[in-house]
What does this fold into?
Amino acid sequence: MTEEPRLSAQDMIDRLSPVLSLRTRIRAVAALLAGVAGAVFMGTLWWTEPGPLPGRTHLAFALFTVFCLAWAAYGGWLLTRRIPLFATDQVIAAWIGLVASLTTTAVVTVVAVQRGAGVGLPSAAGGVFVAVALALVVRAQARRAALLRRKHELTGREER
Amino acid sequence: MTDELLVTRAQLGERAALAQLVARWRMPVWTYVRRMLDAERADDVAQEVWLAVVRGLPRLREPGRFAPWLFTIARRSVTDRLRGEYALVEETSAFGDLVGEAGAEDPAEALVDRAALVSVLADLPLLEREILVLFYLEDLPVEECADICQIPAGTVKSRLSRARRLLREHLKEKGYRP
It folds into this structure.
């Protein structure tokens, strides 16, 4: 059995590196966050627009919102199916998500107040986003802590 | 360093641990893929397997069970390439499993020379070839072979028994004497 694979271990790792590159992961996180934040922002502008709007404006708002949601879906698909987010990456991504949720909520609330609409709906919607982001931060931290504990246990066992 | 520690470190995001896992399991994966497919497709499929492994690694819940998980992915990739062939043999294998059960514990068939095995593997039917590769070339226990092939352990044993019988017949045909 002298036959050998054409790709060496290093070749294989090189071929995997596009999937593992930091840039790819940042792009996916940015697509998801910008998509969600954009959709929320568009929704707020649409909802707080004073007076009755012509049909064409409704269509434009709807198209912009769908466009943002499409980016969010693309980012979500990349992050869940195509790009591996390891435990440390998940912690960083979750914190970025939390900061983005807080910022979006603040911006949307300010816009709603300036346009004379109530703060109830934007705050409630923002609250849901912040709560989800917070839950993701807690989950990511817990998962990383569990892996670190297991790593130390196994390392200790091997050193004995 | 155990696989479990390497996988745990890789799941944390340590690139060096991932590289070590690839280096350690590259040959076993390739051996399995190559025994199931021709040389042309083996390298492509092996790369496909590693891509799926890297993508799925953060979601692997039991790092201690890396090997069966890895071969399940490898099997899925091979199955995708051989979809037609698999469908055909799965249909005809049910009767063979029952027949094979009777001779499953034959100790005379227990030892198979690895080099001889490799030389005639390509002549064996798909399912028998697969089970011999997993059990003899990859040294996986019956339970893990069962997990990977998604069949009961009893079926693994009967399939192995039938595979050994076929192998012996092929070896005899080729003039090999144990």
